[in-house]
Amino acid sequence: MTRRTPRPRERGIPEATVARLPVYLRALQSLTERGTPTVSSGELASIAGVNSAKLRKDLSHLGSYGTRGVGYDVEYLIYQISRELGLTQDWSVAIVGAGNLGRALANYGGFGTRGFRIAALFDADPAVVGDEVAGLSVRHIDTLEDVVSVEKVSIGVIATPAAAAQGVCDRFVSAGVTSVLNFAPVVLSVPDGVDVRKVDLSIELQILAFHEQRKADGHEGPGWIGALEA
Amino acid sequence: MTRRTPRPRERGIPEATVARLPVYLRALQSLTERGTPTVSSGELASIAGVNSAKLRKDLSHLGSYGTRGVGYDVEYLIYQISRELGLTQDWSVAIVGAGNLGRALANYGGFGTRGFRIAALFDADPAVVGDEVAGLSVRHIDTLEDVVSVEKVSIGVIATPAAAAQGVCDRFVSAGVTSVLNFAPVVLSVPDGVDVRKVDLSIELQILAFHEQRKADGHEGPGWIGALEA
DNA sequence: ACGCCCTTGTGAATGCGCGCACAAAGTGGG
DNA sequence: CCCACTTTGTGCGCGCATTCACAAGGGCGT
């Protein structure tokens, strides 16, 4: 088979690579703000906190966008990664749960700048409905289906208490949402074809506690005193 | 030296297993509330959303705590996992950043019930210092070192804007904190012996966007040139 | 034009994690 | 007491991910 077209990607980018692309993207954007035109894999890897061979292999999955002896063109690489991640188009996001976390998410500025538009913020509590948060008026959860359909929401964010999460998820799914980001501490079950990613604050702390305990077991000393000194 | 304690395993629990133990723990706690005395690997795996063989292998890393033909004793397993994760002791947590996210974290109830105590909430903005959040008075960031030492804080949570994160992290580290949970969208650099875990909302959304785009590519027409079809 | 030096892109080796499938072990009924 | 049934614990093979190390490729000075 002769390869006429550049053939950028073979339909299969490893999941681990996908998870790192946003990190590279952020590093590249900080470089562009500093006016750096090109960057080597070593520098970029250092900024992103990864091994340089890993970075090169990751980028090679997108295509050959570097120049040997020189490095990568920052602007061009930003465009290629953005395109691969689907950030050249806009995605509508709906958040359910206007508690502390939901409001924090709605106010988080990092979304808008990267192709994500918060289309709506829902809550079940009538006392909160109508509140103004981040330029949005909190809507009642019963309007979820309508809004998802009208605003073409494709990503749903669940920031409710655990007990409500599966119900909200089901409503998202039957309204046609196929990607869910879940902050509630429950395991959601969804049909095939729907992606769920979980962010669980309490789990992260427990993992840290495990390692912390192990450190203490090893030294058996007061771990948090005098690790410093020079 | 004979060891009285069962001494479950050597010092090697796989990282992937550690990350799942909190999930099992939560599933077990929901079973205990329902009064279930024992549970099989199949049931528990189903609740936790994992393969049953994987669950058994995970638990086998802690020791042989099941009974063949019966299953696992719920209470006993809860205790063993808690002990392994270090949740039988209390951990003091300090949060820096009393913005929306910091407040959400401070108000999140799931911590206190699992051996985590929020010792303090800091902010750099004098306008916020003194605010009452979740029963805590927001303290000025300059008191961080004192509080970390007095309250024996071992886990630091960073919920600041990106620009402030590395500085806060450095102060945590030199005050003796050896575990950091970072919500700011930056890659933190820390010396050896300090653990950092990252929670990045924007990265999660970007990963979802990637998969969402791929789903759309498959069903709709070819994005650019028909790589599909024979 | 030529050769030196730099950096990319990737073959190959290693290690880790997952899941199947089965032997070992314990329970309960007859 | 024995047998059939249930469920654990794990040996094994497979595939993915990470890292090393190096050949291929391109720029630049002379």
How are the secondary structure elements laid out?
The structure is a homodimer of 230-residue chains.
Chain A: H1 15-33, E1 38-39, H2 41-48, H3 52-60, E2 66-67, E3 71-73, H4 74-85, E4 91-96, H5 100-107, E5 116-123, E6 132-133, E7 136-137, E8 139-140, H6 144-151, E9 155-158, H7 162-174, E10 179-182, E11 195-198, H8 201-219
Parallel strand pairs in A: 4-5, 4-9, 5-8, 9-10, 10-11
Antiparallel strand pairs in A: 1-3, 2-3, 6-7
Helix pairs in contact in A: 1-2, 1-4, 2-3
Chain B binds a DNA duplex (30 and 30 nucleotides) through residues 14-17, 40-42, 51-54, 56-57, 59-60, 64, 66-72.
* Percent helix range of chain A: 40-55%
- As for the number of domains of chain A, it is 2
Poorly predicted runs of chain A are 1-10, 221-230
Global structural class of chain A: alpha/beta
Q: State the CATH architecture of the largest domain in chain A.
A: 3-Layer(aba) Sandwich
CATH superfamily caption of the largest domain in chain A: NAD(P)-binding Rossmann-like Domain
**SSE order of chain A, one letter for each helix or strand:** HEHHEEHEHEEEEHEHEEH
- Report on the biggest sheet of chain A: 6 strands, parallel
Give the largest interface: A-B, 68 and 68 residues
Strand count of chain A: 11
Based on the structure, what is the oligomeric state of the protein chains? homodimer
- N-to-C CA distance of chain A: 62 Å
Shape of chain A: globular
